[in-house]
Amino acid sequence: MTEDPAAMVASMARSWADGDADGYADLFTADGTLIQPGVHVIGRPEIRALMAARFAGPLRGTRLRGRPESVRRLGPEAAVMVIAGEVLLPGESEPAPERRVRASWTLVRGHGSWRVAVYHNCARD
């Protein structure tokens, strides 16, 4: 991992592009929370299972693209980041509007590595 919490976006996008549910879940704290419309899961095992099913099904071959809009350090071991993100289907260069999200990430650092404690997204206008 990196000292820059914004680099977490690239790590998540790589795991997504690779369909790597283990890598995706490992970006979270052990008791991390993932909240999306209709979804609320807690803990790496649950996040891993959710994403494995999605990568094997509706998200197969998709890519995640995102950019930090803001990063606010809450101290040396915590940060809040807001991301403009989107999911691209195979062959797409621009997503449909319904696949654009704004996400907030609560990040914590332990042993030099940033992890996602809470991820929440909603539709982006």
Supply database-style keywords.
125 residues, alpha+beta, Nuclear Transport Factor 2, Chain: A, 6-stranded mixed beta sheet, 22% helix
Structure, briefly:
This is DUF4440 domain-containing protein. The protein contains 3 helices and 6 strands.
Q: What is the CATH C-level name?
A: Alpha Beta
> Number of DSSP strands?
6
Given as residue ranges, the uncertain stretches (5+ residues, pLDDT < 50) are none
Number of domain units: 1
Order of helix and strand elements from N to C terminus: HHEEHEEEE
The assigned structural class equals alpha+beta
* CATH topology group: Nuclear Transport Factor 2, Chain: A
Q: Given the C-alpha coordinates, what overall shape results?
A: globular
Number of helices: 3
> Averaged pLDDT, please?
94
Residue share in helices? 10-25%
| Strands in their spatial order, largest beta sheet | 2-1-6-5-4-3
Distance separating the two termini: 31 Å
Quote the beta fraction: over 45%
As a whole number of angstroms, the C-alpha radius of gyration is: 14 Å
Q: Give the biggest sheet.
A: 6 strands, mixed
The CATH architecture can be named as: Roll
